[in-house]
Amino acid sequence: PMDCAKGIGIVCSNRGHILDYEGVDQVPMAMPPLICIPTTAGSAADISQFAIITDTAGLKKIAIVSKSVVPDLALIDPLLTTTMTTELTACTGMDALVHAIEAYVSNASSPFTDLHALQAVRLITRHLPQAIADPRSQEGRNGMMLASTLAGMAFSNASLGAVHAMAHSLGGLLDSPHGECNAQLLEHVIGYNYAAAAPRYREVAAAMGIACPADAVSCNALIEGIRRLRLSVGITGTLATQGIRRDQLAPLAEKAMQDACMVTNPRRPTCREIEAIYASAL
Question: What is the pLDDT of residues 204-223, one digit of tens each?
Answer without folding.
Answer: 999 999 987 777 678 999 99
